[in-house]
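User: For a benchmark we're assembling, each entry needs the component sequences followed by a predicted structure for the full assembly. Here are entry 17's components. Please fill in the structure.
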Amino acid sequence: MIALADCNNFYVSCERSFNPSLNGQPVVVLSNNDGSIVARSNEVKKLNVSMGQPFFEIEKLRQEHGIHVFSSNYVLYGSMSARIMSIFGRFVEDVEVYSIDEAFLDLNGYESIYPDLTDFARNLRSTVMQWTRIPISIGIAPTKTLAKVANKLAKKQTDTNGVLMLSTPEQIRQALEQLPVDELWGIGRRYARLLKQNGIKTALEFSECHDVWVQKHFTINGLRLVYELRGEVCRTVETQPSARKSVCVAPSFGELVGDRPTLHEALTNYVARASEKLRKQRLATGAMTVFLHTNRFRAAVGQYSNSRSFTLPVPTNLIPELSHYALKALDSIYKPGYAYQKVGLILSALQPDTHQTPDLFEGELDPRLLKLLPTVERLNQKLGRDKVRFAAQGFDYRWKMKQRWLSACYTTRWKDIITTKY
Amino acid sequence: MLLLGLTKGLDDSAMIVPDDRIPVHDVVKATVQTTLSIPFYSYYVNAGFASPAESYIEKACDLNELCIDNEEATYFVRVGSDSMSGDRIERGDVLVVDCSKEPSDGKIVVVWYNGDHAVKRIYHVEQMVVLLSSNPKYEPIYVHEGEDFSVFGVVIHVFFKPVVPPSLHSRNMIKDAITALAKKNNGKNLQLGKETHSNHLNVMAKQRRVRKDIQVGNLEKKKGFAPGTIRNADGSDSRSDKELGNLRDEYGEQAIEGMLTGPPKED
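Assistant: Structure for entry 17:
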């Protein structure tokens, strides 16, 4: 059996974990830059606020219902996520961390230790609750896809107490009968439309389709999905994290930016971020994409977007090299007279940074550079982010992210830890 | 391992920790290595020789090991009031709180009550929870069912910095101890090391009196002390615009002069 454990309204739950006065209150968490809604408490879901809705649209609702608003505090969420995943690891050996708030647990072989797997799941749930004050839901089933289905039902049905197991064929059949096919894991909007055209409404009907037809229209992945619904394992629990394929840094600007120097400054900072990410994982990048675009939602003003991809002469993770090429690329696609909302950077063709092939013409990297960056990083760890930085990163942070409602980093900063009042 | 971890009593000592746990330094601050290794020698070294202690190096003492039983359930909480001063928990101290421990009767716990976190000693009386402070200024709190109350976790360690300079009380104790020792040694004069507090007493007698209308902040500047060095006799911060004369009146001559002669060694 495979279990899918995920945190209910994770970002909201993290905020509540350290501020219980938010319990029972409507709470939303906003995306980077406070643009749109990325997490809603159940109270907010009832008000028909949808995921990804722009924040300004709910201003009236916010005032009427006193909705509490938070900017996303990824430092806090990441740290709580690590705790929860670690707790899973104490109960089960094979844990696949699937996203920041969900994980697959391989329960095969545990039946003899836990005769009743739902009991085990309830135990896990109450432990996570007590240690982190974050509610989770657990679905248990023979395959990953069915575990997803079970998890969904565990959340929907109030009498399950957050734990649901689908083990017998009848249970599975019943569950799939209830489930609209477009709510299945891996069925996007396009596939959902195709299924609808063919009169397939429920997950059960989809699982009963002919293999050849499924493979023709939904590729091999669709066929795997159908097999999984029938209870045959096609996706196993992956405990080795797959190597990172790319790194992307592209937050939106707090306000629209038109002039080239500010764009340069922003991009240099993103290069610094990306370089930090790469070096943390001991990777070097072999290719880079730089892009920029205006605000697509403002139809009245002129629109422009462009991008430029290229391979680097030598794979690297060093800021001076990366920013040199990134700025050149930006200059080649920059057009004056537009108000830009975003400039971004994608690093791909990642490889371990020890296996750098020296280039015959470019020569080897200056060894002093290799020492410089770790030193700068150590200083910044001590003094605070970006205290020591390249001059091109600038001193004016006009393009910086808006985070008006950021909560405290209760678990990662000494000055932010909880304080008792009396 | 799994069986042990699963019993709902959650006996932490019995729990074997897997290798892929979050390192403690991640819990504190994601980017800084806070694990401080102080090599612990089991042998004394003679200068001039190749260290014979080399082969006796045991392991590094890790403060985390001493203070944290269960990383995933441990949080740090700062004390914001003097309500637990009877248990040596003072404002500004940092509590290590373990949420996996049972908040049984008599434990010091961090709770959430009526919109705030608080640190108290907990007792269960029938359906009611009683929260006791250890400072008589604070009344017991009786929590009834249905109130906005939850236990955050059990306090397993308290961190605090010792108060510098010594209070009047401990200075008197030093004096008494010296007198007693002198008596024992048949009235021989005692030679004290330069660093002892009693030496400050001697210096004090010779030093010129500081004028009484000087403000604490200015005096600190003049003496080259860090702001906040001169404190009230009970160790709490004194206002920087307070006049020295007032401090003398309130807390006695000796306590104040001791501060001026005892240069601060702590940061």
